[in-house]
């Protein structure tokens, strides 16, 4: 009787571990994985166009990954298609905001664009806050929140059942600390998701476009924008896109002139 | 002062007086009595070199010619005589007695006047008044009045415009025409008017010789030549005055015969004659404000506009020529550069202006081309918008607009090395310039299907809940456990089965070792211990009777109670004597079944 019970609880724990680990371990089909490897080989052999099509094939089959976006951006960069490179770098950045390689390549690719828009100076706390919520990718945060919450629970369970006063005390305080961590991570996760929800951005793809004051081709041109420039997207209306530059300028362009990140 | 000085002063004074005595300025007429319509000559002569001669007013007479100046110098016995005479040909117009005023002349700084001259005019043939030139609107100049009427009628200048009532900026042709009926020996232009208020352009006459034409003016035939032709563009509105042109002619005239020889051969004399054209006023209307188009740049006339582009497709950083050609007649040279909306991203240079404008009597016409050099710096599709060129058409009195086609331009990617514009590269940028992009990521990618991100998935929420669920479960379990264990008797009764099981397990071990004595003891202890705990009977009161009573009180069936008591008896007996009739295994099974059954039912 007793043996049976202990066996069952062990099996339950195993399932639990598996459930946590499973999403972390790649579940992709071998196809996408091998195409990725093939793309990397083509890239290493400087066959950048072929690498582009390999990576695109992965994306076309519905898979997403910061690494694929990043490598595709690199391949485009090497073929000289800077706007496309920036588009995929930014997509990679969105999936993995903390990655230094991605941030670096965005900076380098930006040197090859024409427009240099000086951003409006930002209050340092906002900058810090954005840095904090974009420190880790959403998926990492999601796994961390599960693990932290699990350990919080285990600490409290230990506190409930232990006989030793010392262990009881230690597990209690550990539980409190872990709990605060879990809540923080959940909050960051929520903020990051919210950030990407409200911050729509796009990369300009037309070599040179006049930004109009109204969504109307005959309206006055406000300023000129060139390919590769990242703009914020305020709203879309009937084939037009209201864009906002980092320096605060706004205007309308045709949706076909830009691709959303 | 010495006497010598006085003598010198006296001598000087005397000399002056002496000269003055010698200077005579006199007037004389060829006749003292003339008939109307008759010509006569008046001569003013001075026996010295005089200047600033001013004639008297010849009221009642017409000046036909003059002043004709003649000088003579004679030297007799070493003394030199100089004489100058000014003569006028006059014609009496009215009857009566007239007195000429004094003519004056200045000799050596001293002014001399002539004696007045009396002329009696008697009735003669009538003077044709109608043929005389009509008095111009502006007051006649003094000297012109002093000219002989005969010449002024046969030699004069006129300023003629093709239009007198124009709009501002509308072109008009101004001609200075010479009308003559006399032969001209020499001519010279003294003054050309400034033409203030106009923008003017002379019509170049390629023909060197003056072209004479016959023209009838006010009923008389004249030889007419165009002295000068100018195209005028009024710069502002209002009444604009065209100042006169001034010319000097030397006219060959028949001189009155004085001698028989003269009369026979005919005498001529060359007369210098100054002529001024009468001033002319041109009325200039302002351009109407109503309907003035926005892009109007002051073009007045009839125009056409066309644009051309040398290529429609090119690479970035290549040059492109856009030409806007405005042709027609009007103030082409005054047209301001039209506003053309080139794509904001094109580098634009100031236009090269090429004029092909001809000036002739009908006005200025031709074309003006604006050539713009454009350099697209970035690839893309661009459009040069249609240009609207507005002008004022004086013929219709309205503004008109010529539309010029627009162009679509496709700019392909140019040489990338030229295309990169590092503008405002800061320190950070310069530092980065030498860096290359980071290499691709070769580790296995964390691929997932789009829309199946772990964050936000069902799995995520389920897993997120595991922690709290475990905790909640633990909490519930602890509460249930606490409640269960609060009554020690119940705990004991619950644990009875387990203790019995332990005893039975031990008994089974003894049985396998064929240690029957210990086996029975263990079974006995197991049963007793179990019952004691289960039925909550203290060890002191524990006997068969109390057990049976307790079990009966718990409504267990008699068969089970009997079996239990039998087994207990058997075990008690087996401790002292060997058991027959029943195997140890059977006893063990029996005991086990009894415990299961009691466990089941209680």
Tell me what the structure shows:
The complex is a heterodimer of chains A (261) and B (602). With 261 residues, chain A is an alpha+beta fold. In chain A, 61% of the residues lie in helices and 15% in strands. Chain A is built from 9 helices and 8 strands. A 5-stranded antiparallel beta sheet of chain A has the order 7-6-5-2-8. The radius of gyration of chain A is 24 Å and the shape is globular. Chain B is an alpha+beta fold and 602 residues long. Helix content of chain B is 27%, strand content 38%. Chain B contains 12 helices and 32 strands. In chain B, helix 9 packs parallel to helix 12. Chain A: Keywords: Membrane, TPR repeat, Transmembrane, Transmembrane helix. Chain A: Pfam families: SH3_3, TPR_16. Chain A: This is Tetratricopeptide repeat protein. Chain B: Keywords: Membrane, Signal, Transmembrane, Transmembrane helix.
Keyword list:
heterodimer, A: 261 residues, alpha+beta, Serine Threonine Protein Phosphatase 5, Tetratricopeptide repeat, SH3 type barrels, 3 domains, two-stranded antiparallel ribbon, 9 helices, 8 strands, 15% strand, disordered N terminus, B: 602 residues, Immunoglobulin-like, 4 domains, five-stranded antiparallel β-sheet, 12 helices, 27% helix, rod-shaped
The CATH topology of the largest domain in chain B, please?
Immunoglobulin-like
Number of domains of chain B: 4
Please tell me what the overall shape of chain A is: globular
Radius of gyration of chain B: 70 Å
Question: Beta fraction of the residues of chain B?
Answer: 35-45%
Protein name (chain A): Tetratricopeptide repeat protein
Transmembrane segments (chain A): 128-161, 170-188
TPR repeats (chain A): 66-99
Domain SH3b (chain A): 199-259
SSE blueprint:
The complex is a heterodimer of chains A (261) and B (602).
Chain A: H1 2-24, H2 30-44, H3 48-60, E1 63-64, H4 66-79, H5 82-95, H6 100-110, H7 124-133, H8 138-161, H9 165-198, E2 200-204, E3 208-212, E4 221-226, E5 230-237, E6 240-244, E7 250-254, E8 258-260
Antiparallel strand pairs in A: 2-5, 2-8, 3-4, 5-6, 6-7
Helix pairs in contact in A: 2-3, 3-4, 4-5, 5-6, 8-9
Chain B: H1 3-22, E1 25-29, E2 33-35, E3 39-46, E4 51-54, E5 61-76, E6 79-92, E7 96-100, E8 104-107, E9 110-113, E10 117-122, H2 142-145, H3 149-154, E11 155-161, E12 165-167, E13 172-180, E14 183-191, E15 198-202, E16 213-217, E17 220-234, E18 238-242, E19 246-255, H4 260-265, E20 267-276, E21 280-285, E22 301-309, E23 313-315, E24 320-330, E25 346-348, E26 352-360, E27 363-376, E28 380-384, E29 387-393, E30 398-404, E31 407-412, H5 416-419, H6 427-433, E32 448-449, H7 458-485, H8 488-512, H9 516-535, H10 544-553, H11 558-574, H12 584-601
Parallel strand pairs in B: 2-10, 12-21, 23-31
Antiparallel strand pairs in B: 1-3, 3-6, 4-8, 5-6, 7-10, 8-9, 11-13, 13-17, 14-19, 15-17, 16-17, 18-21, 19-20, 22-24, 24-27, 25-27, 26-27, 28-31, 29-30
Helix pairs in contact in B: 8-9, 8-12, 9-11, 9-12, 10-11, 11-12
